[in-house]
């Protein structure tokens, strides 16, 4: 399920929409901007960081690409499951396979 405020879908392609999607039982937060008909560019943050690092990059790119900047599990606004139930490894963090918004 994806959630966004009504004002976030104002039609302004440079407007950053804050959304969440349930992926493998985890709430994954992501920032989205641009037209979904344009090529999609996924912006992946480093460690330790979150999608907020792209807040100034997204608006100037939104007129030529559909942008998605997710927060990995345990980072930013995404769910942070207990280490006993989630593998905080590259494979574990990159494991959710469903594309947000799809």
Structural account:
- The chain has helices at residues 58-61, 90-94, and strands spanning 17-23, 26-33, 40-42, 66-70.
- The chain has 102 residues and is mainly β.
- It has one domain (6-94): Alpha/Beta hydrolase fold, catalytic domain (Rossmann fold, 3-Layer(aba) Sandwich), CATH 3.40.50.
- The chain has a 4-stranded mixed beta sheet with strand order 1-2-4-3.
SSE topology:
Layout: E1 17-23, E2 26-33, E3 40-42, H1 58-61, E4 66-70, H2 90-94
Parallel strand pairs: 3-4
Antiparallel strand pairs: 1-2, 2-4
CATH topology: Rossmann fold
Largest sheet: 4 strands, mixed
Domain tally = 1
Helical residue percent? under 10%
Strand neighbour order, sheet with most strands: 1-2-4-3
**Structural class estimated from helices and strands:** mainly beta
Q: Which value, in Å, is the CA radius of gyration?
A: 14 Å
Binned strand content: 15-25%
Q: Quick one: how many beta strands?
A: 4
Helix-strand pattern: EEEHEH
């Amino acid at each position: 399920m994806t959630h966004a405020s009504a004002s976030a879908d104002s039609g302004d392609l440079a407007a950053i929409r804050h959304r969440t999607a349930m992926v493998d039982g985890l709430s994954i937060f992501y920032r989205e901007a641009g037209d979904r008909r344009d090529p999609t560019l996924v912006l992946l943050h480093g460690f330790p960081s979150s999608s907020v690092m792209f807040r100034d990059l997204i608006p100037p790119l939104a007129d030529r690409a559909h942008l998605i900047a997710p927060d990995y599990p345990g980072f930013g606004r995404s769910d942070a499951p207990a280490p006993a139930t989630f593998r905080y490894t590259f494979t574990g963090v990159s494991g959710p396979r469903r594309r947000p918004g799809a």
